[in-house]
Amino acid sequence: xxxxxxxxxxxxxxxxxxxxxxxxxxxxxxxxxxxxxxxxxxxxxxxxxxxxxxxxxxxxxxxxxxxxxxxxxxxxxxxxxxxxxxxxxxxxxxxxxxxxxxxxxxxxxxxxxxxxxxxxxxxxxxxxxxxxxxxxxxxxxxxxxxxxxxxxxxxxxxxxxxxxxxxxxxxxxxxxxxxxxxxxxxxxxxxxxxxxxxxxxxxxxxxxxxxxxxxxxxxxxxxxxxxxxxxxxxxxxxxxxxxxxxxxxxxxxxxxxxxxxxxxxxxxxxxxxxxxxxxxxxxxxxxxxxxxxxxxxxxxxxxxx
Length: 305
Ligand SMILES: O=C(O)CCC(=O)C(=O)O
Hints:
Helices cover 25% and strands 20% of the residues. The chain is an alpha+beta fold and 305 residues long.
């Protein structure tokens, strides 16, 4: 991460890294996403790992974009992003959650910019990201190092003009000491968006890297008729931090590299250490056994009915 980029990130709480994805990667991500959307029209796909698809799902199995395979797996630790993530989070960090968000012309009632996050727990107890006491939304620069509670990478699959909508934030708010005044938190139309909120234009293949500590949100979509913004969010934490209650189970995604498996480890201060890897592998083995036992039980029940 170049020192100019470090300066801008510290000043504003976000940066745009251009052309992180090459055309074949955009095409693959797009094709897999569209195939998935054909079966599931939800505007948010994957999850912040708080939702199961089925109450009988085993722990750690909340929906994820990783199930779409291909380039979705490569995005776990994209080499072009590694220097940014290690600068902002330290040597060891983990993928906490992921999801895709589709912005398009929406019914009036769904078109609201909810600014959330904000430095030093500025979001307060009613924040969208949870009752923020400053613990999870932290940002700090000291001893020549960045410290962040959550770093979001927004991979853009479409061109977005600033006037279309999409990502917006209050630059510098990751360092603010006061909560965002409530009148500015919600904007139902683009006209209501306060002028100190910066709307960020991007091209397909760019990535917006932001700290969740920067007050941010999605501006109501006003792009040309039929247009969409499709964005893939991969969100990373320091090892000892967890946002989501549902961890990844690396065994759900065959063919991962050793590095990718490490990035999916559940939280612990030790990070990817042989002691923690052994403990979590035991938990994963138990999950596999539970699934097998449930399948056998279902078979027995089926044959006795
Ligand atoms: O649409 C966006 O880029 C903002 C998404 C957002 O608010 C978030 O990821 O917390």
